[in-house]
Structures are given as structure tokens and as C-alpha cells.
Amino acid sequence: MKITAESIYADVAKIRETSPLVHNITNYVVMNTTANALLALGASPVMAHAEQEVEEMAGIAGALVINIGTLSTSWVAAMFLAAGRAGELGVPLVLDPVGAGATSYRTKTCHDLIEYVPPSIIRGNASEIMALVTQDARTKGVDSSDPSEAALEAARYLNEKTGSTVCISGEVDYIVDGGDVITIENGHPMMARVTGLGCTATALCGAFAAVNPSFQAAASGAMAVMGIAGEIAAEGSEGPGSLQVAFLDTLFRLSEEDLKERIRIGADS
Amino acid sequence: MKITAESIYADVAKIRETSPLVHNITNYVVMNTTANALLALGASPVMAHAEQEVEEMAGIAGALVINIGTLSTSWVAAMFLAAGRAGELGVPLVLDPVGAGATSYRTKTCHDLIEYVPPSIIRGNASEIMALVTQDARTKGVDSSDPSEAALEAARYLNEKTGSTVCISGEVDYIVDGGDVITIENGHPMMARVTGLGCTATALCGAFAAVNPSFQAAASGAMAVMGIAGEIAAEGSEGPGSLQVAFLDTLFRLSEEDLKERIRIGADS
Amino acid sequence: MKITAESIYADVAKIRETSPLVHNITNYVVMNTTANALLALGASPVMAHAEQEVEEMAGIAGALVINIGTLSTSWVAAMFLAAGRAGELGVPLVLDPVGAGATSYRTKTCHDLIEYVPPSIIRGNASEIMALVTQDARTKGVDSSDPSEAALEAARYLNEKTGSTVCISGEVDYIVDGGDVITIENGHPMMARVTGLGCTATALCGAFAAVNPSFQAAASGAMAVMGIAGEIAAEGSEGPGSLQVAFLDTLFRLSEEDLKERIRIGADS
Asked: Which ipTM score applies to this complex?
């Protein structure tokens, strides 16, 4: 299957038309901004984390997004309950391993979640993706001295082990699935100065996964839309404050032309 | 009592002059944006949810706003404590039943809260208000096939049973109290693409209820101000990002002229 | 040591160059906006509050910022754990006693935290700083009828007792340490209509404390940068919504010229 500006825009149109419900168990920092990004794109966000209700909520959702950015005991319990229910029902599950590697609590929670229900899509930066691969695996297979090469090795290993589409975001985004690697080279450096745009990318993966059963296509679409909307927004901005505002406006107005003109997508395997 | 642009602006002026303290036990998604809306209008927001302090905080507040958007066990316990104290002291209590009907935990929590302390004002969308009426009541009295008619029936039933002013927000807002129904037809469709503007409406109900003992007048004022500020903001906006920014600016600058020129208020009974 | 526009800009340059990790245990209302302010200035924010990980996170941070704005049992436990670790390792600790004096839970938590690990910097408004001084101390030493004089007395007492640099923010900011009082008179009244700019000031104190071992210089730099960025932002704004956006843009672009032209710094002892 070929992923193009046209195929991605078809997914955007489907999101706008069907407004899929995206259930987020996410961190406090980005709840507002990711809900707004999902709404601006056309999806219906819901945030719910109580153990009493997450299974019911995940059961009616088009996708479940789990983001461990500000995890704690009861939230982790809710993540497992919701993930279990999503797994049973075939609801696409997207995981953002925020800060994996920074503390052992984060790293272990991610390892356990992935083992409990392999996600449809895992999206993180290079160091987070590497932290998902155990030391054992790293010493065996992942020994590149080039960090982006090492992350790519980790993503390949993780994809093979779990079946999850693995997305490494950075200056170049890599979307790894079954030997195929899609690359997206959109975006703008000022995006790194706005909190939670990585988390937003993950949330948009949820929206795309709710309308496209190919998780590699879904993750590629989300990353392309993020990067292109970020580029357009940054061009008219004075700094990260106005970038944020323009980013939501751009998501709302994003056209097939915007995608066609700007997309920088590639594939290597 | 006649509710007019002039009477609503008198409440706005009183809020600006007296800066009533509005105690919010609200959801994580909208804490920042509702605090900002209250400040922009001229009120003093405080967010506090610890069981150790909510009674003390509710006791010094001009109004208490309870919003169940991201409820969990200890937050629900705090909601009951604060509501109980507000009830004892006669502090106006505003309830936003976010997502009632979506999960049984939300529905049940709302039913229990309303039974424990009948709110001064309940504000929700049509499906949330309908979820507050038990199946039993619905089969008896609320059987319209027109959804907005059904919501209105539910609001009338709820008002009669609890004494709460019930506000259904939507393209037309209905503020139901004792047989009288005020309608407000301000607003803009793009407002639905910004997260938490419903929650903001509820928070503003708190500010108005702190300065006006007629809860129907208070809720009508809050809904008119929301709709008019949203209209003005949307007219100058490129999308939901800039709408949010302009909405706060407009609340801050809102004049009696803005209200007089734009208000679309009606009454039927 | 003389604190000047030049010395403050040198700290800004160092923050931009070294991107110190600032670990925040802060309130839900401002998590997003303080993370964005830290990023806009050039620091690296992380928000983490789980008891399982706060010691590890505080241990790798350049500064720890504790803000009690929406405290609860498990968060307070995490604050003590993180503060203890910061104290052991000499990581600068900044405390924001949000709402101290409003409820006894807040007042007592602050007293206990300060006794457990004296902060490097305490920043609050006049009434919060006064609430940190016990009734006993107040009746003994702090009996001015002028509220700003009373707050200054409380700050001096607190500084003497704990060694903490104490910063009272308001129309004039006072940064008290060892008999010396630095005053900063920058800022704009509209800043009071944006939620959490006080919390942002505290977070920026963390960024400055991570690069400057003089905590009085660090707090003075943070307050000057806040006030000046707020002034510049307010000048081009229609209200508190656009002020917020422009504030982040201004922090991102703030130049040595901006500081030199606008700083209103003084010292008395």
C-alpha cells in the first residue's frame, strides 16, 4: 500500500466526517492541548482515567491513547484495565512512553504495558524508543554508535517482537513496520519549544488509527499532518506562543493542497 | 423579573467590581482555561480538591462549581464534602454533569450528588441533562421523539423535583425554572471545536450566581455572555486556536453595547 | 555582587545554552503554561509527581520547583520525598506556597516543608509570605499596619530563620536575603488577569537557580524577566488571551537590549 498526500488526506476527510471518539489516558500537562488538537482535526476526544469507568469508555471508543507522562499508581492501574479492554475488543491502542529511560518507574511501566497488550502503535523520541528495548536486546542487536541508527534498530526489534508499528519522531520521523520504514521530513525546529507536541502527535495517531486499519499508514498520516501543520504555523509565528495558536487553526483548515505541496515522505526497507 | 442586556450587564459590572471567589472542583482538561475565563470576566477563581481543605474553601467562596469531567474516587469524595458545606452555608452550587450517560460511574455520581445537595444550577448539553433523569421518569413523562423536546421535558422534570435551575446548552440554550423557560440563541459553531467551552459556561454560571440570587437570571447571564463573547471572538478568528485567545480578550473587554447589540433572548412558558 | 541587566542576561544566555532540567511538582492549573514558559526561555521542564519516581527525577534535575497550588495527600508525600533528595544532593529547591493562609491544610504543609528542607528560594505574594510566619512570630516582630511593610518584615524573619531567599511579588517585587533587599518594579496590571503567572515566576526562579548559585541573583533575574516580558507582551495585547500568547513569544525572543532598556531594579537594606 502506497502512502501519499492523497491517501493521508482521505483519512483526514474521514476523521472530519465521522468524528471518531478517541479515549485518552494521558498526562496532566497536555490534556487541554491534545483535546484541542483532536477537536481541531475533527475527532472527538474524551479524557477519562478512573478505574471505575475506563473499560466502559475504551469499549465505546474508536481508539485508545495511553500516555505515561505523569503516571501514578491508580492511573497505571487504569491504563492496564483500559488496554485490556481495548485488546479484547480490537480497539486500536496507541502508546506514548513519555520519559521512558528517565526513571525506572516509567521504563518498567512501559515494558509491562507492552507485554500485557501489544499496542497498535508506539510513538516516542529516539531515547524513549531505545529505553523500551531491554539491555539484553540492546547488547545483542543494537550496538550502532550512530544514535538515530541505534533507535531504528530498537524500533525494528520492538516491531518484530510485538507487532506494533513503531514511530520514532525527530527531525526525521521513522515509521517502522514489518521491514518497511516510512520517513517523514516535515516539521519546524520551533515546535520543540512548545510543550506536548509529541503527545499531540500520539493523540493524532489515535484519530488516524480509528479510521485506517493499517497502523503504519495511520501513524504516517498523523506524523505528516503534525509536521505540515507545524511548518505552516511556524512560518507565521513570532515564537512558540503564536505557533501553538496557529497550529490549531492550521489543523482546522488543513487542505489536500497543503499536504500535496509540502509532504516530504520517503520509504526505505 | 425581566432578564435583559441591561440586567445582565449590571451583573457583569458587579462581578468586575466585587471579584467574587469561585471555588472550582473541576476536570483537569479545563482547569487552566476556566480559571482564565473567570479572571478575564473579573471573578477570582480558586481550584482546590483535597478532602482536607474543600469544606474550608467552599466556606469562603461566593459560589462552588462542581464539574465531573475527570472524576475519580477521592475527587468525588471531595465533591460531596464541598457540596455539603455549600448547602449548609447557602453558597450557590453549580453542577456540570460532563459525560453523564457515557459511563455508569458518571451517571451515578451525578444522581447521588443531586440527591445529596440539590444544585442551584445544573448546566449540561441535551444528552447529559437527559441522563440525569432516571429511566423510570423518562418512560413515564419524557417520550418525545424530538431530542431537544425530550431534553426540555427532562429539564422541566428535574427542575420540579430538585428546585435546581436547569440549563441545556446547544445551538439554542434553554434555562428552565419553575415553568419559565428563557432561551438564548447566541454563539458560533466554531465554539464546538474548542475543548471545554461548555465547562467555561458552567464556571461563569458560578460567577453570576455569586452576585445574583436569581439563579435563572444568573444562568441566563452566563449563557448570553458566553454566546456573545464567542460570536465576537469567532468573527475575527482563523480557527479554534485564535478563537480561544480572542474569547478571553473579548470577555475582558465586553461592554454593555456588545450585549445590547447582539443578545438574542426569548422566553416561553 | 551587583545585579544588573547585563548579569541577568548572562543567566538567560546560560539557560538557553545549557537547557537545565527543571523538575516541577506543581499544580494542575499551570502545568501546561509553566512548562511552556520554561521551554520558551530555553530550559527543559519535566513534570513528575509519583512517589515511585520523584527522588530519581529530582536527582537528575538542575532545580526542583514545588508548588502547592492543588495539593493532596499523595502529592504532598511526593513533595517531601523530592525535597529530601534535593536537600541531600544540593539541588536548588524553589517553593511556591500558593494559597498559604487560605486553608489550614495549605499553611501547615508549607510550614512542614520549610522545616523539613529549607528552600533555596520561596516566592509568593504578600499574604502568602505572611502566612508562612507563625502567629507567634508575627505578634513578636511583625506588627506593621502597612501590609507591604508587614510582608517585608515577615520575609526578613523567614530569611533569617531558614536562610531561604524570600521573594514577595506584587506591583513591586522584593527579593530579600541577608539584610539586602532587591526591588524590581517591572510588570503590567493585566498580568493579574492571566492565571498562573505567579507560578510561572516561581518556575523561572528554578531555571535561574539552576545556572546561578546566588539565589538572590537568580530570583531577581526571574522576576525581572517576568516583569519585562509581561510589559512587552501587554503593550501589544487586546486582553489577557493575547497577553498569554505574546508573553511566550517574548520570553523566546527576549534580548539584552530589552532588559537594559526596561529594567527598573533597585536595592535597599
From this structure: 0.94
